[in-house]
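Customer escalation, tier 2.

The customer says the design service returned an amino acid string that "doesn't look like it belongs to this structure." They asked us to rerun it and document both sides in this ticket. The original structure tokens are below, unchanged.
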């Protein structure tokens, strides 16, 4: 199997230069361990998988074990499974600081963001940096692989499978393992069948505003349970809530988040869409492409910037707004056409929001202007612009 160089590697190395501990977040099977192994030789690192009983046994007396490896980077995988370890790490980091070692002590990998963020922020405040590894995105593959990335998604084992059939099988097994094993192991007592139905129903509403009451009626469960399911999938970094942009415009605007499954390949697997031909004839086509573009752009966005959508009651709408720390706002419209046409709603929304720059992302490769201030651009081209701003 081929491997793909992850652009986050440079960021991770930089954080390890300056931080005593780095938390690398991301869903299971996204490539966190592979990336950690990729850099481990540079640090003569020790790797412990905390899902392994033998590795957990090594940390029964954590101070003793970690003291024996005090001059090496310690990589702790699935660290949210041992929450009692965090106070020990704080003491060890502070001891090493007093001895003059201020960086590169621990790399913590985890796939449950809420639990891990809560545990680490309480115990390691001021001692830890956070990075999130997303599925493989558009800048990490060749232009000829873009459609494969869209259809199969960005999980490495799915994207790099030998054919579409093997890729789909991997994703279906991934979904089943999450529902039947991984989530119960995190301590959630949830009906596997209800969760699968909920996840699948989100696919049919991909990129739509969240309507908990409608989902509640369809699933035969109460609204609180629907919201709990959604929060769980968000916490596991499998679903995103894209928040609405709202400011004092004197207009009625939507205030419900849009909900999207973050990996397009998971959407297609849950809907049993096996290849590009099947996708092109499926009603989910437009929403799938739009959410694929949004997720790829957000994965390239500086952590100082934020993403939103905009929609007013009068029909004015912008698919994605990027809000920069200096106050700049970029408006991005997403079209699945090689000859994209903008509707009145986009122009009306731009009059409301007054963005600094305006883009139309389309599936072609050429970049060109369709008006004085609106640029048509490929997904990869805009993603590269975002990366260059961060660097």
């Amino acid at each position: 199997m081929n491997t793909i160089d992850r652009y986050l590697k440079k960021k991770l190395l930089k954080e390890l230069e300056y931080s005593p501990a780095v938390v690398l977040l991301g869903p299971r099977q996204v490539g966190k361990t592979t990336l950690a192994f990729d850099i481990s030789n540079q640090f003569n690192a020790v790797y412990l998988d905390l899902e392994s009983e033998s590795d957990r046994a090594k940390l029964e007396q954590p101070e003793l074990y970690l003291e024996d490896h005090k001059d090496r980077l310690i990589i702790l995988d699935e660290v949210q499974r041992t929450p009692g370890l965090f106070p020990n790490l704080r003491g060890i980091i502070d001891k090493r600081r007093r001895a003059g070692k201020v960086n590169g002590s621990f790399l913590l990998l985890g796939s449950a963001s809420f639990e891990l963020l809560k545990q680490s922020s309480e115990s390691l405040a001021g001692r830890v940096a956070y990075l999130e590894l997303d599925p493989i995105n558009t800048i990490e593959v060749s232009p000829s692989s873009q459609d494969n990335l869209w259809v199969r998604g960005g999980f490495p084992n799915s994207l790099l499978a030998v054919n579409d059939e093997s890729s789909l099988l991997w994703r279906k097994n991934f979904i089943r393992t999450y529902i039947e094993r991984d989530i119960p192991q995190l301590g959630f007592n949830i009906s596997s069948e209800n969760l699968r139905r909920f996840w699948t129903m989100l696919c049919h509403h991909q990129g739509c505003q969240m309507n908990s009451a409608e989902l509640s009626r369809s699933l035969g469960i109460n609204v609180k349970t629907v919201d709990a399911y959604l929060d769980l999938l968000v916490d596991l970094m499998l679903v995103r809530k894209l928040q609405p942009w709202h400011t004092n415009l004197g207009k009625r605007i939507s205030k419900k988040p849009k909900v999207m499954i973050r990996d397009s390949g998971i959407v297609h697997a849950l809907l049993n869409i096996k290849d590009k031909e099947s996708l092109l004839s499926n009603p989910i086509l437009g929403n799938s492409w739009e959410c694929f573009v949004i997720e790829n752009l957000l994965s390239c966005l500086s952590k100082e910037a934020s993403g939103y959508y905009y929609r007013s009651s009068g029909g004015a709408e912008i698919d994605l707004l990027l809000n920069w720390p200096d106050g700049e706002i970029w408006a991005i419209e997403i079209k699945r056409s090689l000859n994209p046409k903008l509707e009145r709603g986009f122009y009306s929304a731009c009059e409301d929001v007054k963005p600094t720059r305006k883009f139309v992302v389309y599936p072609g490769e050429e970049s060109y202007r369709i008006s004085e201030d609106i640029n048509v651009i490929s997904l990869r081209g805009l993603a590269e612009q975002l990366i260059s701003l961060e660097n």
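Tier 2 assessment: The sequence is consistent with the input. DSSP finds 17 helices and 14 strands in the chain. Residues 30 and 155 are 5 Å apart (CA to CA). Sent an explanation to the customer and offered a walkthrough call.
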